Hints:
It is built from four helices and nine strands.
Amino acid sequence: MAKSRRYKPKSKRQALESVRTLIPWERIQRRVAEMAQEIRRDFPLEPLHLVGVLKGSIFFLTDLAREISGDVSLDFIAVSSYGSGTHTSGQVKLTRDLDSSIEGRTVIVVEDILDTGMTLQYLLRVFEQRKPRRIRVAVLLDKPERRIAKVRADYVGFTIPNEFVVGYGLDYAERYRNLADVGVLTLGAKVKKS
Ligand code: IMP
Ligand code: MG
């Protein structure tokens, strides 16, 4: 029997995808506000320059920025890691650079998720050459089991198991970024018990 759907999937393949909520929006909001306070507590007097890694960090960055008191500025950088599926090749390329110099500034790199760490490792190398006053890293999600590169975040929203997640900015092939919650994406048909 056909089930009702909230939207009509474009292809048969999409029809087999499903998302199970992992971290509800309310919980994300509470944690992001806490992270903002942790960051400001560590640097009470400094102007903070938030650098968002496009596009996954957009909702996290805007929510975080609104919760940090005092002097805050924003910039964005974009990278691609070759591949649009649930696995990346690990090769990172800069596709959009910052608008302004970070020399002498206190930079907070804002990322959606720390997975293998290859993206962050690449970005930190690029940024360190530009002589910021200091660099800190804030990630919404951390999947430590998947780490290849030797990098760590200074501020972590949630540590999650090794599952592919979408929502709150995170995508699968550019879809699902607009979901309010973070959820685990399942591809393919689920085995139904009759
Ligand atoms: P890295 O493996 O740490 O370099 O992660 C690179 C990028 O892959 C992240 O910034 C995300 O954009 C993407 N990514 C990694 N894991 C996930 C996931 O579970 N869902 C959606 N995107 C992910
Ligand atoms: Mg990302």
